[in-house]
Structure formats: structure tokens, C-alpha cells
Write a structure and sequence with these properties.
binds zinc ion; 7 helices; Rossmann fold; alpha/beta; nine-stranded mixed beta sheet; two-stranded antiparallel sheet; single chain
Amino acid sequence: MTKRRLIILVFFIASFAMNGLQAGEKIKVLVADGPQRAHKYQETTPALIRLLEDASRFEVDHSHSSLESVEDGSYRPDFSDYDVVVMNEGFGAADWPEATQRDFEDYMANGGGMVSVHAANNCWPDWKEYNKMTGIGGWSGRNEMSGPYLYINDDGEIVRDTSPGRGGSHGPQHEFEIVVRDQEHPIMKGLPPTFMHGPDELYDRLRGPAENVTILATAYSSEDKKGTGRHEPALMTITYGEGRIFHTILGHHVAQIEEGSFVTTFLRGTEWAATGDVTIPVPADFPN
Ligand code: ZN
């Protein structure tokens, strides 16, 4: 081996070691779901697992917080076995046991990864730390006590609006444009400045602690579609201690999850939440 090749090899190994992953090692993902209302996790969880497995960058486990296991406290996955937890919990999910909540907070604060998919920002309005991780959320009684509305105005300024009112709503499903707001972020690099998604639910009026949030992309919530007339956050990252979160409002059901716009942003967002870096390419025909 020449000296030059050796240097390249050492550099290559070092760049993986920085992420806590060995060269060629797969990212370990836990997809977490549980009983909920309004969304068919029994169908969307297998769809999310399929996407991750097809990308061949991930090794996936599934964890289900059954009602019995949260009530008797036996629901206690070992989060430290995973590089990232994909939350497919949703509206009406039962609270995780206290000890499991503390485990998850420690895991995230110490550099864990989380992906919040669509309705995962609907559950657990009273779990303070979880709401810091999602940044903003909706429904389940969220209001001005949950924190400000977060959106971007027509001048491109980020607004934290503390006015009173419900958190979370959406009009009828329709196709909408996603506008990239941070072209240089690793998740967004190489994506076109705008692209279409849907028909899907365009979540608006989300509110929460809204701390340490980077808005990667917005969707305009049109008043014609019973929306707010605001540019609503559609893709975000949040930091929580040393932990990284990717938050997508997209993906109501299987058809929406299988759209190219969801697939690419979800896979790249999951990789980033796990490692802080993105190697999964943007397909040439994105978002088709
Ligand atoms: Zn939905």
C-alpha cells in the first residue's frame, strides 16, 4: 500500500469513527409505535421499516408500546442500543412509564437521535422534555401554555407568536409546495429549492417550546384550504443537549410515506439524526 493510499484509508476510517460507527457498519434504528387514534400505525410502521431497509444503510428493530406494557411499566426498550429512534407514536398515545421517559431523556441528552414523523408531534402534551425534542406540536389540548406558534412570515422572518389559541390544525389533504429554507444543511444539500408533496395533511398552528429549532423547509398554508396564510415549518431539526432530532410533518399514511419527497427527506433526516452527517444521495429524478 502506498503512503498516499494509507493516509486516505486512515482518514476514511477516522471519519466513520467520529460518528461512533465503524466503516461499513449499519446505522441501528428503533422504530417505536403504540396504540393511538386517527392514524394506522399498523400500516405506516411497516412502510417506514421498508424504506429504511431498502436504503441498505440501516438495520431496523421495532418496538411497540402496548397498553399493558405501559400500564405495568414493563415497556422499557434499551435506547442505548440504537443510533436513532424513529417515533411513529401519535394522537392519543398512552404515556410511557416514568422510568422509560427518563431513560429516553438521558439517551437524547447524551447524544441520541430521534425522528418525529407526522403525528408523533400530537402525543404527550404534558411530557415537558419530549415537547422540547419535537420543538412544536399540535392537538391534545395544546395552547398558549405549550409555547409560541412558530412560522415564517412573507418577509422570510422567523416568528415566535405567543398569541392565545389552539395548537395544531389542518385543512383537507391537498398537494402543496415545499420551500427549502436552509439549502446548506446536510439534509437539504442537493435538493431543489422547491418541490411538490401530497396530497397530504399540511399541519399548521403548531406550537411548543420552539427552542433550538432550525426550520429546513416550509409549506404555505393557504386560506383557500382552511389554512393560516403562513409559511408553516414542514421539515425541521432540533437539538436537545447533545442529541439531534429530525422532525417532518409529512406522512399521514402509507401513500404519503411512499412519495419520493417523503422518502428522500426521511432517509437523509434519519441518517443525520443518527450521525450528524448525510451520505444518502438525492436521486436524479427527485421527487419522483
Ligand atoms: Zn395525519
